[in-house]
Design brief:
The complex is a heterodimer of chains A (314) and B (363).
Chain A: H1 13-36, H2 41-46, H3 58-63, H4 82-113, H5 119-130, H6 134-148, E1 150-151, H7 156-165, E2 171-172, H8 177-201, H9 205-213, H10 218-229, H11 231-247, H12 250-255, H13 263-269, H14 278-300
Antiparallel strand pairs in A: 1-2
Helix pairs in contact in A: 1-14, 4-8, 4-11, 5-8, 8-11, 9-10, 11-14, 13-14
Chain B: E1 4-13, E2 16-26, E3 31-35, H1 42-50, E4 57-62, E5 65-66, E6 77-80, H2 92-102, H3 107-121, H4 136-149, E7 154-158, H5 166-182, E8 186-191, H6 194-200, E9 203-208, E10 211-216, H7 218-223, H8 228-233, E11 240-249, E12 252-257, E13 260-263, H9 266-271, E14 279-284, E15 289-291, E16 300-310, E17 314-321, E18 324-331, E19 341-346, E20 352-354
Parallel strand pairs in B: 3-8, 3-9, 6-7, 7-8
Antiparallel strand pairs in B: 1-2, 1-4, 4-5, 9-10, 11-12, 11-14, 12-13, 14-20, 15-19, 16-17, 16-19, 17-18
Classes of the chains: A mainly alpha (314), B alpha+beta (363).
């Protein structure tokens, strides 16, 4: 045991085979996407699958045409508004993640710590809501957002909104950021509550009592003592929510309009009945993957085990 | 410093009553110890005073002001918990200053107070450590420090030493006693350990089954317990109880039990004048039995010694007289042979007498 960090036990060959398969399965598609994003459509479709090709950043230029400061030679008209969609994605994802976490941690705390009628039922049914497939929600939500949750254009508020943002007809939830954010919150909340409950249960009750004796009110107990201790849970929930909201396609495609569409919708728009721009799709896909990676790296640093060590006698 | 008064304090969980109308008055700057076996309601009483449990009935008064409807933060009490309850995400200094920071006191004042208390508890060099990096004794000290930094009128201790090992417990007990001399505040201390109770308390409150059995100064409770429970609970090794009957033989009255017959003196006869029963229960502290081979049979017990537990200067003999187990405490250098029947002299004025029908002491 001279160098316990550098010597490893020799494993069975099958072990390596399994590892290799798993790595290939997860890295393969990404590598393929990465390579193809630097190829011209001609190269992709012609089947020159090898690594021998002339790399080009033309696909990325096309994808980012609306935010590049210079004119592109190969493009007459910038039809792809990646910059706008990216900002939409960021707005929708971040706001829905933050709101989901805020509502989720409070709801989870209440479910764990407070005694009220129907507590167990609420706790049990939160997860069941999660089992409803988004596709089932699609039609009713689309109807509600377009027809029910509207502010008439004749009303005072509606007039102000119309004067500020323009447009005709009533002001409805459909096609707004809020409409999509609301659906994402509803979709992610049950799971976040469920995850956070298990973290809150682990916070020793005496800590909260000690804080109350130290003069903290209910909210101070929650924000100054409980919340810092469930940070790992919040981080895990944040990663989960962020990724779902970032990648979601179905609901966003129905509920967004030209100005609020997100990046996944944009990618699919590159496919038409005449042409599939594989290179651009791959490039957009690569760009789409970056924010979740950064966010996950950042959030996973908060996942530290043993947060409550030393609080109470084991 | 306030006076705390409990008036008919009652606690019910559903239909199950665990505290049956506790009446208690705690004076200004008094160290009160609630002691009793587990489940006697002592912790519940403390937690009700703290505001962590609701009051089912009765009232708690601080300086004649009812407080049972107030939140813990509005009661001006500091509490030390049994399992420390330190905030694991804060270092020692932050833990100790948490209450002051909530009150939004000026930084300089907080720092000064924290350093003062840390100095007193010997925690200065650990101020920037997290609780996880401290030993049990240090954690307990931080927990106490957290209470001390606040200028509360009253300190509540919920079995603060029960998680420490024996040696550390003795040491912390001494430190508590020293702290007690410096800090003149009301302290209410809950423990199941009667030694802690005896050494620390100005006033002991012995509780059992949700009732107060007896309260008073440690000496009073030790010397004149009101019933068998208090007598048996205070003192180590515990008091021996022997069943006997009152018999008259000729001019003399004897307290006769299995294998012994003690002749009553005048003082004892005086005590027994109004006693209605024949049966009686004798309570003899192990330290009141004295080895004397030459003692007369009517002033001694004859005991067969089974085991001698050597604890240093003193030894505890576990012996029996018939079915009855009897403990004797004596100097270790007393020449004792195990397995033999030996005479132990007992003086009648040291004997406590109890009525076996209701376990009350006969004064």
């Amino acid at each position: 045991m001279a160098h316990p960090d550098t010597t490893y036990e020799r494993q069975h060959p099958a072990f390596y085979a399994v590892i290799f398969t798993l790595v290939f399965m997860s890295v393969g598609p990404i590598a393929l996407m990465f390579i193809n994003s630097f190829k011209l459509d001609v190269d992709i479709i012609s089947g020159t699958t090898g690594l021998l090709f002339l790399p080009t950043i033309q696909n990325y230029e096309t994808a980012l045409c609306d935010i590049l400061p210079y004119e592109l030679d190969h493009l007459d008209y910038c039809s792809l508004k990646f910059g706008g969609a990216f900002i939409n994605s960021i707005i929708i994802t971040l706001i829905s993640t933050v709101l989901t976490l805020i509502i989720g941690c409070m709801a989870a705390y209440a479910l764990v710590r407070f005694r009220f009628m129907g507590r167990d039922t609420v706790s049990g049914t939160t997860l069941m809501v999660r089992m409803v497939p988004p596709a089932v929600l699609l039609v009713p939500v689309f109807g509600l957002w377009n027809n029910e949750f509207c502010i008439g254009r004749e009303t005072w508020v509606g007039e102000i909104i119309r004067d500020t943002f323009g447009g005709r007809g009533d002001v409805c939830l459909a096609g707004t950021h809020s409409g999509i954010i609301l659906v994402y919150i509803a979709m992610n909340l049950p799971f976040v509550i469920w995850i956070l409950q298990s973290f809150i249960v682990q916070v020793p009750r005496q800590l909260e009592e000690a804080a109350r004796m130290d003069g903290a009110g209910s909210f101070q107990v929650f924000f100054k003592v409980v919340l810092p201790l469930i940070k790992p849970g919040l981080a895990a929930a944040a990663i989960f929510t962020f990724r779902i909201a970032w990648n979601e396609y179905l609901l966003a495609s129905a509920l967004s309009d030209r100005d609020t569409k997100t990046v996944p919708i944009l990618i699919v728009n590159n496919m038409s009945e005449f042409n599939v721009e594989w290179g651009v799709i791959m490039a957009t896909g690569m760009l789409l993957a970056i924010p979740p990676i950064i966010f996950t790296l950042f959030a996973s640093r908060q996942i530290i085990t043993g947060m409550t060590a030393g609080a109470v006698k084991g | 410093m306030p006076k705390i008064r409990l008036d008919g304090l009652t606690k019910r969980y559903g239909n199950f009553e665990v505290l049956h109308g506790i009446d208690l008055e705690m004076d200004d700057a008094e160290f009160t110890v609630l002691v009793g076996p587990s489940g006697c309601g002592k912790s519940t009483t403390l937690r009700m005073i703290a505001g962590l449990e609701t009051v089912s009935d009765g009232e708690i008064y601080i300086n004649d002001k009812p407080i049972s409807h107030l939140e813990p933060k509005d009661r001006d009490l500091a509490m030390v918990f049994q399992d420390y309850a330190l905030y694991p995400h804060m270092d020692v200094a932050k833990n100790m200053s948490f209450a002051l920071r909530l009150q939004k006191r000026p930084r300089a004042e907080i720092d000064k107070k924290v350093h003062e208390v840390a100095e007193m508890l010997g925690l200065t060099e650990y101020l920037h450590r997290k609780p996880a990096e401290l030993s049990g004794g240090q954690r307990q000290r931080v927990a106490m420090g957290r209470a001390l930094t606040r200028d509360s009128s009253t300190f509540l201790f919920d079995e603060p030493l029960s998680n420490l090992d024996a040696k550390l417990r003795t040491q912390m007990r001494a430190e508590l006693a020293m702290m007690r001399q410096r800090v003149h505040k009301n302290m209410i201390y809950v423990t199941h350990d009667q030694i802690e109770a005896m050494t620390l308390a100005d006033r002991i409150v012995v509780m059992h089954d949700g009732h107060i059995q007896q309260e008073g100064k440690p000496e009073t409770l030790f010397k004149t317990p009101v019933n068998k429970f208090v007598a048996g609970f205070l003192g180590t090794p515990p008091m021996n109880f022997l069943d006997a009957v009152i018999e008259s033989k000729g001019d003399d009255t004897y307290l006769t039990g299995h294998n012994f017959s003690l002749r009553c003196d005048d003082a004892t006869l005086q005590r027994l004048t109004d006693y209605p029963l024949q049966e009686i229960c004798l309570g003899i502290r192990p330290s009141d039995l004295e080895y004397d081979a030459a003692a007369h049979a009517d002033e001694s017990l004859s005991l067969q010694v089974d085991i001698a537990e050597y604890i240093g200067a003193q030894s505890v003999l576990i012996s029996h007289s018939g079915e009855q187990k009897v403990m004797v405490e004596l100097k270790s250098d007393t020449p004792i042979t195990l397995g033999e029947e030996l005479n132990f002299r007992v003086s009648l004025e040291d004997i406590h007498l109890f009525n076996p029908s209701d376990d009350r002491a006969i004064p």
